[in-house]
Amino acid sequence: MDDKTLLALFDKFDKSDAAEMKYSGNGFSFELRRKEACHAPLSAVSPVSGPASPAVFASSPVPVAPAAIPAASASPSPAEAAAHATLAAGNEYIKSPIVGTFYRSPSPDAPAFADVGKKIAKGGKLCIIEAMKMMNALEAEFDCEIVRILVNNGDMVEFDEPIFEVKPL
Questions:
Q1: Which domain does 161 fall in, by range?
Q2: Which of 15, 50, 68 is the last residue of a domain?
Q3: Residues 84, 30 within the same domain
Q4: What is the CB neighbour count within 10 angstroms for residue 32?
């Protein structure tokens, strides 16, 4: 599939009212979902990808236009509401240093870098934040224990948004 055809498909999806679009053919396969459609009931979620699937999937190396995903609604998500909950005494937030997509593991079938209760040494990987097709590893700045993970796998995170609640060790 050439870039012109692919971009035309993205444009049609962006201008439509459809919540999802799936394409498979000519050796390419991909899915597009609007951000609102990613918060599906748990029964519709793949057990491999975790509680929320990424907004855009590519099972073949296909360039994906970020403009195909509309901006999020103004109402806070459950993850954002949890992030603003009371911080336990002595705990700290680890916040996102950039805007991007949060991933708990390097691939869908790999174990998560950090789970609740896991102790992470200074310099240990916590997650990956994808921004502009660059995978950025977020490392712990101090020894800590994960208390809560405040965002779901595949969620968009904003700059300075709390993503982990940790207990310094």
A1: 78-168
A2: 68
A3: no
A4: 23
Q: Are residues 108 and 57 in the same domain?
A: no
Say whether both 48 and 107 belong to one domain. Answer: no
pLDDT tens, position by position, 126-144 = 999 999 989 999 999 999 9
39-68 tens-digit pLDDT: 444 333 334 444 443 444 444 344 444 444
**H or E segment to which residue 5 belongs:** helix 3-15
Please give the full DSSP string across 46-113, using - where no structure is assigned: -TTT-SS--SEEESS-----GGGSPPPPSSPPHHHHHHTSPPPTT-EEEE-SSSEEEESSSSTTSPPS
* CB of 101 closer than 8 Å to CB of 49: no
Provide the residue type at 163 as one letter: I
17-31, 99-113, 138-152: lowest mean pLDDT where?
A: 17-31
**Is residue 160 domain-shared with residue 85, that is, in the same domain?**
yes
